[in-house]
What we know:
The complex is a heterodimer of chains A (332) and B (338). Helix content of chain A is 37%, strand content 23%. Chain A has helices spanning 46-53, 80-86, 98-101, 108-119, 124-137, 143-147, 156-168, 186-203, 214-220, 238-243, 248-255, 295-299, 315-330, and strands at residues 4-15, 18-30, 35-39, 61-70, 73-74, 91-94, 174-178, 206-211, 223-228, 231-237, 304-307, 310-313. In chain A, the strands form two sheets. An eight-stranded mixed sheet of chain A has the order 6-7-8-3-9-10-12-11, with helices on both faces. A four-stranded antiparallel sheet of chain A has the order 2-1-4-5, with helices on one face. In chain A, helix 4 crosses helix 5 and helix 5 crosses helix 7 (156-168). In chain A, a hairpin with a 2-residue loop joins strand 11 and strand 12 (310-313). Chain B has a domain at 237-338. Chain B has 338 residues and is of the alpha/beta class. In chain B, a hairpin with a 2-residue loop joins strand 2 and strand 3 (33-36). Chain B starts with 7 loop residues before the first strand and ends with a helix. Chain B has helices at residues 23-26, 67-75, 97-106, 124-135, 141-154, 171-183, 201-218, 229-235, 253-258, 263-270, 310-314, 331-335, and strands spanning 8-18, 27-30, 33-36, 40-51, 56-60, 82-87, 90-91, 107-110, 189-193, 221-226, 238-243, 246-252, 320-321, 327-328.
Amino acid sequence: MALLEVKNLDVRFAVRGGDLKAIRGISFSLDKGERLGLVGESGAGKSVAAFSILNLIARPGYIAGGEILFEGRNLAAMSERELRKIRGDRIAMIFQDPMMTLNPVLTVGTQMVEALKAHRRISTANARKIALERLKQVQIPSPEKRLDQYPHELSGGMRQRVIIAIALLLDPEIIIADEPTTALDVTIQAEIMALLLELCEQHNVALMLITHDLGVVSQVSQRMLVMYAGRVIEQGPTKEIINDAQHPYTQGLINALPQMGEPGRRLFQIPGSMPSLNRIPTGCPFNPRCQFANDHCREVMPEYVRSGNVDVACHEVAALIEKEKQLQEEQP
Amino acid sequence: MTAPAPLVEIRNLEKRFDLSGNFLEQLRFRNGKLTRHQEYVHAINGVNLQVQKGEALCVVGESGCGKSTVARTVMGLLSPSGGEVHYGGKRIDDMSGKAVLPYRRKMQMIFQNPYASLNPRMTIQQTLEEPIRFHHPDWTKADIKNQVQDVMQSVGIDPDWGVRYAHEFSGGQRQRISIARALAVDPEFIVADEPISALDVSIQAQVLNLMMDAQEARGLTYLFITHDLAVVEHFGTRVAVMYLGTVCELADTATLFDSPRHPYTQALLSAIPRLEDHRPNHIRLHGEVSTPVNLPSGCVFHGRCPYANDRCRQEIPALIATDSGSQVACHAVEEGRL
């Protein structure tokens, strides 16, 4: 059984004039120690998906349907009290902006001890010992000093290291990292990503990495999901998707990267932009930007088809697979 | 060897920002004595750059390295603390506001955040008309209108949308409008400060293509500021890598990406997450970027450099030409240790 299993998750935002459907029936699973990448552009719903796993969606948002099974228990139906036992303890979260995540008026040590004491019966002295241990693991220079420092005294990279240390404090099963390195410089980003990867392997923690950076996903994750307008449009092993993307949107995303183009030539570009939630087109949500779109795409939402080990939601891919099958039947 | 005269030349540029406040705030009482205490951010320390006509010179570096300050100083939005800025052979940084006007028409800027750089209370038509009216006071209303329509079409914005306000457009469209505003007065030279960093991947490609098309159609020269090396590799003719207010390597794009010489450039290049990588395999730099308030002695990079020795800690390296055609400011390269 998978450690985390999300089935048909539906998240909506209640606004005047009806609900906005931010997530429309996404399903995926995460095994113990597995690293899963969640990719998409802004507005695709990737952060909402991550937040809804711990039911951290603030009103007017709500989970309208589906199940989030963590070790067989449905997080979507749990009471706030039960959820608090899981948040930070069994499933930890790392957010994008380290300055917003840390409390500016408490020292790093106080915040770490606080997290430990909220979940374990432990003396302050012991809690500080564990906190120091974790700070050493994230390779912060002079960790003893950092315990008594305030977040504003640390650089961006160090703050994110502290956040990772806090996420690891209670030996969680899963870490959900929402764009953990987006606010950082390239060289610092590379260091933090390598550290996160190392620690997850060392402690056998499952990692769910939300990012818009395909390069990071291909370096870190074993499987990936590509989201577009609240739907997962492609999911499967990362290498297979990066090397041979099936969905026209994923192909476009990869080909639009400057590293894929020849220097000085025009880049491949996907026309248009992601639809806003109140104007999602009928049928396949990508159809207005898709070069292969036909009337069928404009009317019917595509079902998932399997191509290799990858699940793709695209009529064109489905048609191609069908054609191949026929060809094989004709030539025994 | 005589290279053609550069369109824009920056000589020994320096820029300091005063942190110490007014005179009273500078006074400190120490050991029974009243002393005056002054502190500066040394944003640029002696940068020399030449932008040739028709090229795209990219300036890369991490946050705080002074790349945006270079852009703003070239544009005259900041006045340099030392050094000179030349445009077409004329020194422009000490010109009076009136004398510099014809140069301002030839130099335009595109900013990073299209949500902040467009006036929310002006329609797009007004936004695009303003620079034209300012620089061509003799033009008739019809001339201005035609020019606005042309420029909107050239960036792929429907001219009928001129009556709309900036908030009615998506991020990519807003950046197109910013580009249109820069192009409206037919400039020769465009400074683009992180023009695509705030945009999504698929939109970044659209905007980059637009900028390359405009370069081809109008013969533009770019000074392109970015932190994204993948974009530089695609877009740049030459690259200047900056670290803590100094240029540490300057080379043709292909040369820089094939054989980076400066240890910082090497680390920076290895840190780009590439699609074909299976694990992060970057050169690990230790320590943090030091602050531009207290600049380190000697080479600014020595605190994080794996090859630093005593000379690096004391003597500031100068940009020297190497056999591969790039210019590198590094003692280790000069001595052949690297």
